[in-house]
């Protein structure tokens, strides 16, 4: 499993950088329709992985650790509200709009806001925190899995969204005239966050007994809440209120959910 974690970390890093680095340094553009359709499928997959794979496993582990109390749903809801705080509560209108542009691939929104932005670059640190939190939690959940069968669905969900999120991040940074070195550093740090979580989660599994089980159960529950947030608020709420192709998006979201359901037959 250690070799699998290293491979997962490398593939996730490559997927993120393939999306995030190419747009820097030139006036790159997204294909809004293609990104929207890909995001719709990823939303269904995220939702299915969270509810079909992560939550049942987290609940089973927490029933052993804390019998009679719904710790897994509590932690999932806490993660949901934590991501909501970082992405929407402390931000200025400009920062909030840029993050929306990045997460939803709405490059035209980020470009419009960037025309009036303060170029001091201070907003990138707030942006970085918002993007790193769910990436790190996802990596921890993947790395904490003790067998390949349990890790594979989480890996598929992460990779499915990593390149499109990286592409939108790179385009938004380029269109907001973030200095090249700073933009590359931001993309690299974001790209490394999930692999670092994977390796840290793997290292924590070396602790046997209740401590290791507690770590795994906590990561699974928190990541499930994060996946639900990404599916519901980062993707579905946006894709079905902006643009067209709603029937196609709905079918693709259903297809993503079906993918997670079929994976549950074997893993």
Notable characteristics:
single chain, 267 residues, mainly alpha, 10 helices, 80% helix
Task: Write up what this structure looks like.
- 48% of the residues are buried.
- This protein is globular.
- The chain has one domain.
- The protein has 267 residues and is mostly helical.
- Helix 2 packs antiparallel against helix 3 and helix 2 (32-65) packs across helix 7 (148-175).
- Helices cover 80% and strands 0% of the residues.
Question: Strand percentage, roughly?
Answer: under 5%
Please report the distance between the alpha carbons of the first and last residues. 15 Å
Global mean pLDDT = 80
Low-confidence stretches: 105-121
Characterize the largest beta sheet: strand count, sense, and whether it forms a barrel.
Answer: none
Report the structural category: mainly alpha
* Secondary-structure element string: HHHHHHHHHH
Question: How much is the radius of gyration in Å?
Answer: 18 Å
Number of strands: 0
Count of helical stretches: 10
Number of domains: 1
The global form is globular
* Portion in helices: over 70%
């Amino acid at each position: 499993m250690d070799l699998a974690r290293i491979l997962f970390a490398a593939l996730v890093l490559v997927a993120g950088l393939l999306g995030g680095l190419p747009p820097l340094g030139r006036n790159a553009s997204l294909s809004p329709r293609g990104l929207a359709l890909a995001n719709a499928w990823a939303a269904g997959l995220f939702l299915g992985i969270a509810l079909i794979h992560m939550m049942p496993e987290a609940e089973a582990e927490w029933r052993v650790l804390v019998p009679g109390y719904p710790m897994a749903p509590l932690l999932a809801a806490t993660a949901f509200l934590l991501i909501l705080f970082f992405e929407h509560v402390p931000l200025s209108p400009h920062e909030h709009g840029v993050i929306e542009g990045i997460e939803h691939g709405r490059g035209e929104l980020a470009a419009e806001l960037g025309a009036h932005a303060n170029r001091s670059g201070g907003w990138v640190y707030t942006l970085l925190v918002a993007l790193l939190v769910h990436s790190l939690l996802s990596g921890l959940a993947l790395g904490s899995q003790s067998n390949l069968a349990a890790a594979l669905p989480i890996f598929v969900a992460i990779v499915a969204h990593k390149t499109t999120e990286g592409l939108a991040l790179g385009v938004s940074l380029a269109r907001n005239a973030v200095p090249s070195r700073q933009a590359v550093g931001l993309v690299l740090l974001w790209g490394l966050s999930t692999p670092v979580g994977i390796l840290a989660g793997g290292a924590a599994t070396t602790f046997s007994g209740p401590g290791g089980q507690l770590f795994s159960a906590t990561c699974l529950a928190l990541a499930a809440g994060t996946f639900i947030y990404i599916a519901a608020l980062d993707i579905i709420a946006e894709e079905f209120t902006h643009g067209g192709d709603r029937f196609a998006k709905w079918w693709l979201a259903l297809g993503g959910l079906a993918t997670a359901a079929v994976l549950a037959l074997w893993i």
